[in-house]
Amino acid sequence: xxxxxxxxxxxxxxxxxxxxxxxxxxxxxxxxxxxxxxxxxxxxxxxxxxxxxxxxxxxxxxxxxxxxxxxxxxxxxxxxxxxxxxxxxxxxxxxxxxxxxxxxxxxxxxxxxxxxxxxxxxxxxxxxxxxxxxxxxxxxxxxxxxxxxxxxxxxxxxxxxxxxxxxxxxxxxxxxxxxxxxxxxxxxxxxxxxxxxxxxxxxxxxxxxxxxxxxxxxxxxxxxxxxxxxxxxxxxxxxxxxxxxxxxxxxxxxxxxxxxxxxxxxxxxxxxxxxxxxxxxxxxxxxxxxxxxxxxxxxxxxxxxxxxxxxxxxxxxxxxxxxxxxxxxxxxxxxxxxxxxxxxxxxxxxxxxxxxxxxxxxxxxxxxxxxxxxxxxxxxxxxxxxxxxxxxxxxxxxxxxxxxxxxxxxxxxxxxxxxxxxxxxxxxxxxxxxxxxxxxxxxxxxxxxxxxxxxxxxxxxxxxxxxxxxxxxxxxxxxxxxxxxxxxxxxxxxxxxxxxxxxxxxxxxxxxxxxxxxxxxxxxxxxxxxxxxxxxxxxxxxxxxxxxxxx
Length: 551
Ligand code: SPV
Ligand code: MG
What we know:
Layout: H1 17-26, E1 31-36, H2 39-48, E2 53-55, H3 57-63, H4 74-87, E3 92-95, H5 103-115, E4 120-124, H6 144-157, E5 164-169, H7 177-191, E6 195-198, H8 206-215, E7 221-223, H9 233-238, E8 243-246, H10 249-268, H11 281-288, H12 290-300, E9 309-313, E10 334-335, E11 338-339, H13 340-350, E12 355-360, E13 373-376, H14 385-390, E14 401-405, E15 408-410, H15 412-419, E16 425-430, E17 445-448, E18 461-468, E19 478-486, H16 488-504, H17 512-521, E20 527-531, E21 535-537, H18 541-550
Parallel strand pairs: 1-2, 1-8, 2-3, 3-4, 4-5, 5-6, 6-7, 7-8, 9-12, 9-14, 12-13, 16-20
Antiparallel strand pairs: 10-11, 14-19, 15-21, 16-19, 17-18, 17-19, 18-20
This protein binds sulfopyruvate and magnesium ion (MG).
Residues 56-58, 95, 132-133, 224, 226, 247-248 line the site of sulfopyruvate.
């Protein structure tokens, strides 16, 4: 195989959104811009296949619940445009009204639009604060020279060479006629406008066609046929028009749709009749791009093993607790108003282990915790821990498995660190076993290939040599806390060993340390993760008092 030399990434050949808009305006084919007024409607415009968006002033205002009279400030509109631009990859032509002031406001507007990757702005030759073109008669028009200054200021401020400044001629709207429209067209074209938007509120397109006859293709012309909607579209193409804006139809469709659904729900006080008539919740998630987030989470978030589960060995009574365990097993004794087992399960779930199997025995009926899998070791009084574990042997099949005693409490970081282990079998041992104040006679000590070293910055791990109650003090390196993590491979090793033990007669009496010693003796590596305190087990009233302080 030939290894190619590494190459610097080439500069992206992707056209900017402004270049795309410019391409649409200049293309010999009729282009269409569809109205949108927020991120969602912008996405729907793109999804429908449109190649450009008209960010309508009327629709944005209406969607904000205000009038199309510059009641929304230009920065409020800018915020909406930013959402629209971020949500889509097609160009946006913004309805910039009269430019929100004089030439200076236009300069700042254009710069900010470029920074937000908006492709172009359309400014109209009326006065600030503007009035919608379909309201009233004889609206005053801007002075031509003053308006040309705005066009020039806009062009001089653009950060992208392809950004488009469109000059909108309102001469027909104001009732000034064709000659005035043409006079303004000449002046605005001369001032540097990239295209003209010629507006009309007639029921027919006659004014527009008369303008086109005179203007020809001196520069691209955009129209808004909201009022002359019945004119066949091919007539626009034949007249040499560059671009048609469908100016407010998403907003109007939303109004009708929302009114219908509100009325129905209000009248019926039920959702049953509307459910199938509205977009599904799934559709909402899909439009919001939820799938991409899920993929990103897989890429960037630490991954929890969803298949991980825990087996809690909780079959014994806990005789030393006397009357406290008369009617319940030790795992169900109350520690600060909550059964011990419930606290243990919460710690596991916080650590991402949702599947929990509890092996019960003594007073199993007292274990009333929901959403756990309960197994029973009916011979709990005569058997040991490995016999209890064998009651859940089927759980040692799929994925990582944590086995824990049912009478321990530990800080959650201990579980977190244990879950980071990449060994097949990892046991947790307390290196501060000497400091642990306990009256217990039976403690599972570990002897390892090296002792805990307090200088290690990272958690110290060692290899288990032996575990049990009989290790002489000089050989003890720690005390097993009753937690062992098995990788899928480690779980198989343990399962196989339990099967061997069930045939050689050793299963019934064996405790977990016996199982570990067998594995070590047959050459399996067991990793020891040292901790320094921050855990306890509960065997007697003295431990119980400590547990109350621990929580
Ligand atoms: C808009 O959509 O806000 C427009 C077009 O400016 S019109 O409402 O026809 O004036
Ligand atoms: Mg408008």
